[in-house]
Give the backbone structure.
Amino acid sequence: MRTLLLALPSVMVLLAGCATAPSSRPCPRVTEFPAALQAKAAEELEGAPALKQMMDGMGADRAFNRAVCP
């Protein structure tokens, strides 16, 4: 029990660095594309499933960034 009480302050000090607010980081840039360009890109991705999967992932990242950084 005594060891636990001695270790607790050390753990608290280490975890204090984890308390930095995410708002202190700059928001990533999200480039907007016109709807017509997005539609054309979607047509071009029809025959490229791996590229489509990558673009879908990047789209999800963009949506997350918009939600986090208004």
About this structure: Residues 3 and 54 are 50 Å apart (CA to CA). The radius of gyration is 22 Å.
